[in-house]
Amino acid sequence: MATVTLTVCTTCRSIGGSEPGTDEPRPGTRLLQALEGRALPEGVTLQPVECLSACSRGCSIALSGGPARWTYVYGDLDPAQHVDDIVAGVTAYAATDDGLVPWRERPTVFRKQSIARVPPQE
Ligand code: FES
Fold this sequence. Notes:
By secondary structure, the chain is α+β, with helices and mostly antiparallel strands. The protein contains 3 helices and 5 strands.
């Protein structure tokens, strides 16, 4: 069974959107809430975090999973548009042993909105 962590920054704001004067949850929190409402593959854990140091690219997430997997950071994600793609991307990632999903099998947002990838630690 895969042991994968989907880390979601809950403090991200949309690019240029500070939403001053509202009680609305930040976009990062809305993204987390949207993902909490979705079925994720077995072995995938959703982890909220305050800041992934990708603030100018919010909303941002990270995908990781043990010392044998590549880690990815993605940004410019919209909680109203990209949840299906994130779930599809996480599902494909969890189905691999090393985190390397063939390019054509990655959702478009994962192909175009990658911020960084970090090699396995093994
Ligand atoms: S506030 Fe989300 S990455 Fe910094």
